[in-house]
Amino acid sequence: MTARKYLTAAIVIVVLGGAHVFAWQTTEVSPGALVDGWRGMARFLAEALPPDLDWDTVVQPGLEACLTTLAIGLLGTTLSIPAALLFAVLGTRGRNRIVYQVSRSVMSFLRAVPDVVFALVFVTAVGLGPFAGVLALICHNVGVLGKLWSEAMDEVDPGPADALRVSGAGEAQVVANAVLPAVVPALVGLLLYRFDVNVRSSLVLGLVGAGGVGFLINQSIQLFQFDQMATYILMVLVLIVAVDLLSAAVRRRLG
Amino acid sequence: MEKALSVKGLRKSFGDRVVLNGVDFDVAAGEFVVLLGANGSGKSTALRCVVGLAEADAGEVAIAGDRAAMVFQQIHLVRRRSVIDNVCAGGLAGLPLSRSLSPVLFPKDLRAKAMACLDRVGLADRAKDRAGSLSGGQQQRVAVARALCQGAGVLLADEPVSALDPAAATQVMSLLAELAHRDGLAVAAVLHQPDLARRHADRVLGLLHGEIRLSTSASDLSDVDIEALYAPDRVFA
Ligand SMILES: Nc1ncnc2c1ncn2[C@@H]1O[C@H](COP(=O)(O)OP(=O)(O)OP(=O)(O)O)[C@@H](O)[C@H]1O
Ligand SMILES: [Mg+2]
Known about the structure:
In chain A, 84% of the residues lie in helices and 0% in strands. By secondary structure, chain A is mostly helical.
């Protein structure tokens, strides 16, 4: 028995080791390149500092783009609510097996495709701009939010619903007066969390052409205007911290 | 006496495990019956079959007025809602959806009825408080009020006092006895405290091996009866 254990351990170590060697080679890890690149990094930093704070050419467009980014995150979250709710309800346990499997699979698929990939698809479909970003966020978020919501619904205590069922209440009355009051705070909390994540994603979406401040960052890198890029990154930092604080504060009040 | 609840030949199995093997009992209007039995003897299952939360394999259940009301050990109130809204929720059956989807839509007469039920359990002054802010004993009385708001003639209670301290337990037991004796309800409660049964109930039933093996007036309940129900050498079904 112990011999077999040692053998298993040895195999695991060899396989894991082999996997790392392979990964090291495929990703072309090269500490030497990092050291050689040190000068480049320093020059890059020197150019980025101090940030370009010119109001007309950098700060104002940057602020507007931040608003666009926020707007993409907001619409991407809000507009995904109906479909997420539908799939979440259909994907709760105790449902018809086929309905359950189909809705879980749809959500898994939407979750598995990264929003950047959706964005690239929609950029070719509806052209460069924030709308492509909104569509991309909706698609990915329906999968994630739907799954989070249906898990939250599965965890609800069935007791209050049973109590109303005993009294002869219909299923819609039970949902409205026992299930929803118990589950809505959790659903709203998860929604805010997704808003937070989606604002951050909409930055990355901007990098692939879906508008917002991410788009400006991409542009400034391509034009080698690193001091402008530094300004945009500072703005992003403030934006993300603000959204994070806001959603955390609201979630705390809900809990 | 008039039988408000009559159960005959109730059978229920989970897989090969026979839990109820022909349970018969009646509860008359105005009578308070306590059901005793060891853990796992099937008391909850019997009550759940009576109110339709579980489906019996066989047997007949006759309830005066068709539907029994029930209170639970875990109380099962919606803690975020007000006390009065919780009580109203017991009387939703038959209301159109347009009046029952949210507490702001509940009709005035339902609110008045709920208020009367709340007054009956002595908590009218807490109507506007959040249900979750009340003590366990008070919450259980709110749950009783919600059951009353249903307007049923039969009230079942599954371990209504198991989570309560002795004073709160006595209060809830007195309330259940009063509902039987003064308001004429047929009340059946599952308990794990024979002493409370002796003090408050009219009649005691004992469930063992899936059947009612004991039926006696509460004043005649002896220690030997109790020993037989909970004896360590009993054979599990
Ligand atoms: N949904 C279920 N599925 C499978 N078995 C169940 C289910 N509900 C109850 N049982 C089984 O039925 C038996 C009786 O359970 P029940 O809850 O009715 O007992 P009880 O008398 O209420 O016990 P307690 O005093 O612990 O509340 C137990 O063996 C339990 O495991
Ligand atoms: Mg039980």
